[in-house]
Amino acid sequence: MSRSSPGVARMAAILNFIADHPRQSFALTDLVRALKLSRATCHALLTGLVDVGYLYRTSDKTYVLGPALAAIGRTAAEHFSPLQVAQPEMRKLADDFDLVCGAYFLEGDTIHLRERAASASHVGYPVPLGTRMPLRWVQATSFFARSPREADAAQVRINPSPSAEQLEQLYAGMAFVRKNGFIALTRRPESVAGEAISPSGLEDPPVVPRTDLDDDGVYPLMAIMAPIYDARDRVSISLVLAGFNGATTGAEIRTAGKALAEACTRISRFLIGDPETA
Asked: Most exposed residue of 20, 39, 95, 98, measured as fewest CB within 10 angstroms of its CB?
């Protein structure tokens, strides 16, 4: 595991502390006491941060965030997109498993396919980029995994309303996602082979969430879905692996699901601001 420089960590601690108190300015002694740094070390770091414009030293010898840091913040805010981090993860998943990986954004009661990576054998995948479709109870297993109340509210708006059996599957699927980080979607027994997984009409997708995976079992797998969490612990993006050839063992599903969940965890850490330690 790589180790960061102590000097960088101390510099970040100063910036984070001042950023956490935007209406205040701090003297050298304040920062030494709050951050438990030596006076000499803290003074040297403050001098360097002032020199590059990340901090500003006021006339009363206190420190506030500087103009260069503000400019960086504006640039980051204007160009920030989770897809910057999601795209390489999606590409690796698609290539490693010879599949299609899509990023579906939740926009109100609609899910929107905003990015996709396909392996060479799936270049002509039938769901076009930019597809929008109504949120259905099946996808809610991922989008509302940690938000049962939001799941309840969404079911009221969904047309047609889920049946009692579907609601039971929904909440079992949400629990599975909370425990495992992903949910496998297998073909409904009554669905027709070749039926699309992402309809644009009001009909339900021809899949059900599978929560009883046995490693030696074989399942008619259509997709694996996993949530990406933001700083509010809410899901506005889910990654979906699709393009499976149908019969897939439980062990194979768990392998792909674990890789997908780990990728979503790394993206979530980026959104939350919690750097990966691996």
From this structure: 20
